[in-house]
Amino acid sequence: MNTRPRPDHPDEPPDDLPAMLRAGAAGHVPTQAAIELLIRHGHWPDRLHRDGHVTTWPADNHGPAMATIDWRTVAQRLHDHTEHGLAASSSERSVLTVAASLVSSTDVRLGQVLPCLDATNTGLVATAIADACNSGVHVTIHRHFATTHLDALLATMPRVGSASSDPAIHAGPRP
Fold first, then answer.
1. Total structural domains in the chain?
2. Of 2, 37, 87, 113, which has fewest CB within 10 angstroms of its CB?
């Protein structure tokens, strides 16, 4: 019997899909980083499940319920620009491209991906990259701060080679 859902009646993802994906990624840092990126972004876990790119296993005596993403197929569909490719916004595609690149041999051109991201998604991507390096760094980017206050902040800093009487304002690393 074929248990694959019919395309016009997609199988609804389980409520605990994020926990299942985390369990399936446990022990492989780059996969954990990619899964966390997709979960925090919010769009892709359910979508990939509905599209048939997620395999799930029920909990049993050997462990919790788990799920894994077929990264190879996802990467192929990302590069497929026909009707068989993944329809998504440029920001959504960029997030998925970075996630896939952390786990598979998917090439990512940061010059094409990063301009498609808003401040929130840029922070998510930067955090995922840091997580994949097992750095423990969390990145938050505030676009409003960067565009509104950066000029004012730079105006208070001395120019290179000038002396400052304020020890809190200096050029270069702290002694």
1. 1
2. 2
